[in-house]
Amino acid sequence: MSYGMDIFDEFRRMAREMERLMGSMTEEMQRRLPVAKESGFREPLVDINETSDEVIVTAELPGVSKENIELNLSENTLEIKTSQKEDIAFEKEGYRRRERRSMNFYRLIELPCGVDGSKVKASFNNGVLEVRMPKLEKSRKYSIKIE
Question: Is residue 78 within 8 Å of residue 131, measured between CB atoms?
């Protein structure tokens, strides 16, 4: 007995919608992280905080030396890039151990507002990078009293 309705139509529709959504998310990530995709970089964990005067970006970069961090600021984006390789060798009576590892991170962060690039301050301590960027005067929010 047929009722003219396929009970799997809704499942097929949902599967098509999920494929469409996942495809658009993948395209967005590929657009935002072209270097990471091509070169095997990992994406660091990042916090972005905005106060009335500045934007503060905190990034976790474990195992990286300060000298291997590259920061670039352009328009409303902050680029964090690191490249560090480490070769560890250990030898002991008939036993040899050799390890290689690389700590490559890349992240392109879209900032919530314009910042003053000439006054940016960055610090790095115990694997945590903190970048403090003062907002441009025109980007700051002001309270206006209504008379």
Answer: yes
